[in-house]
Amino acid sequence: MITHFKNKYGSIEMYCNQEELDTYRIVAKGIISLSLLRRYLVHLKKMDRESSGKFNHIVDTSNVILANPLNPIYLRAISKLEHIHLYIVIVPSAFLRFLVNLTKWINKPDYVFKSGEQFDLSTLVKK
Q1: What percent of the chain is modeled with pLDDT above 70?
Q2: Which of these, 23, 14, 36, lies nearest to 86 by C-alpha position?
Q3: In 1-127, where does DSSP find H-type helix?
């Protein structure tokens, strides 16, 4: 694990894939409040400024119970990062996937998948 952010009700953990050093996997758990998301985004923006090359950003929401309805507006910052290559969101819940697809025009992920087994990162291209 590279870093983690947590509060009383939820957490955001960031991992670096050892085989693909340019890929970060984000695991969100519990209730993702706006303050928790903001703390994470501050760190992500700092990483982007310090990065020398492109990186992939994979967010796994499998363990999210609830998220602030304003989160998609703040998540827009991810697609605006200078060094972001692919922004992928994993959403197992059909209802939440529907909501993510409704707000896709706001936060602009490149791909939304039901599970991590649904894709091979090496075959994906930026849309």
Answers
A1: 95
A2: 23
A3: 34-50, 71-79, 94-102, 104-107
